[in-house]
Amino acid sequence: MPTSQGIDMRDKLVELGVTHEFTLYENEGHGWTGANGIDTWNKLKIFIQTHLE
After folding, report:
1. Which residues of the chain, if any, have pLDDT below 50?
2. How many domains does the chain have?
């Protein structure tokens, strides 16, 4: 998704008071791998454990 759409979504979630975490990985596309992919999965796991369990 374009960076602007991610930022717009983040702003709307803030406006609505929705618990979320926003991380922008510059120059990444869909299906990223490597360090950014690992970071995403680690953050997702922590988020789910913190907010959904």
Report:
1. none
2. 1
